[in-house]
Amino acid sequence: GVMRGKYINIKKFESALEKGFGFCDVVFGWDTADELYDQPTVTGWHTGFPDAPAKIDVGTFRKIPWEPGTALFIADFEYPDGSPYPACPRQLCKTVLHKADAMGYKVKSAFEYEFFLFDETPHTVREKKYENLAPFTPGMFGYSILRSSVHSELYHDLIDTCREMDMELEGVHTETGPGVLEVCISVDNGLAAADKAALFKTFAKVLVQRRELMATFMAKWSPDYPGQSGHLHQSLWYKDGSSAFYHDTKALHMSDTFRHYLAGQLRLLPEVLPMIAPTVNSYTRMIKGFWAPTHSNWGLDNRTCAIRVIPGSPKSHRLEYRIAAADGNPYLALAASIACGLYGIEHKLELPPGVVGNAYDLETSPENANLPETLESSTAAFHQSSVMRELFGAGWVDHF
Q: What fold, for 97-101+239-399?
């Protein structure tokens, strides 16, 4: 996704706080390159592109370090009566989180992102037609202390900026590939975690462009290197503060709630995949042997699976949703994964056996459910799914 916005003065801001404000609804008819979708129903030439009602979320206040006297807020699209605008990803995420709350659960999440840096500018990448781009650093060097120290000024600038903008990073390191970094954003409650992820993807690009560099969060920048992940860590908690995923005496310390939740995610992953993998490029990442999952499966601390169960204490027991890539919209990735998990709890779905060893070698085993291999096939499965319409509403499914 793309964050859209504009500057407004104090007087307009005060009015918007009280009454809301209008924002052209063409943003729900554009793709990431401002090309209009074919036959959208929410907006289009047939509607005249009117303003959509928006409301500022004052809880998202942040300061931008290099813009003194300027405040940043995230806004929701919603109608004057408070009902959600049907095409707004953040509102969809809030709706799913409200359902979790009604079921007695609090969601904690954390995103991690891989992204490539290039010694390029917006002008040079176009002049080169996006070919033969110069990476920020050459060669393969995952977890490199050498490169991290050489470029420590950039690293510390990124770390400090994220801390000042309330999206603190737990860690930063080089990954395997020329100029690729990985960051882990600190855990937070559901919506706040998605806000931090969306802001990070935007302002990481801002920060490096101010240094005459370019960042890409494409799922697969080059066929020669592993794709860029957007892994999502998550856990459910009861309202008394205890873990809904951890059980003292159950196998692998996985509670029944955890097992049903995971079973729902696995069962529905082939149908919900477009919300996780939303571009043609997304499907080029899911290649055998390139650190990305190829089937709907799970394993204990197994990085060859779509979902990795990470064992630990009651505080750290969680799952890693490894199917998600860096190009995904964090609000949709979170909404999709949680909604499918809650479906599993509601229907008490049975968890299939976990994969032991290399999941790439078990492609025809019962533990591995096939996934659509193209955006076209995954979109067809999504659109035809009665469960997707049940979880997200027919209006959202048809628009998306």
A: Creatine Kinase; Chain A, domain 2 (3.30.590)
